[in-house]
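Mods, move this if it's the wrong board.
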Amino acid sequence: MKQSLVHFGAYNHWANRVLCDAVLSLREGLPERIVASSFPNLYGTLLHIWDAESGWWQTLEGHSTYVIPSEQFNPNLRELINGLLNQSALWERYAATASEEELNRRLACRHAAGGNYEATAADILLHVVNHSSYHRGQLINIMRQLGEAQVPNSDFSTWLLLQQD
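Not the wrong board. Structure tokens:
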């Protein structure tokens, strides 16, 4: 299980980097262009991923109140991407260095829709990766809606293949 979590932490950081690089390469104004999606644009979707990864990190650290990036400041695209990638790097490092005991530690969690529950640190890490993957799929869909023919492949299997080189 530990090795899978190490892989997922590294994969999540890599996949976020791949998508962030793609967004940065777009023509000026496209990341903010409004489209039909769960979030209004690429910028908003990236900000949501950062908010979630940050919020779950604060849960892992036992914070009783959260500092959510989108509620604290209005970053430009570069600041947003730097914040998200720095957060993803923390998750990658945590997955690589956490002991089995740490990964099995039970934490108090609050569901966004309401209600409290407990989850292990490993469950939270898996949720973070899964949640970010879901929204990276939305980023690709938004890029296609914006007319981008070449969108990056951020699949876990692609990351695994790249590890073989």
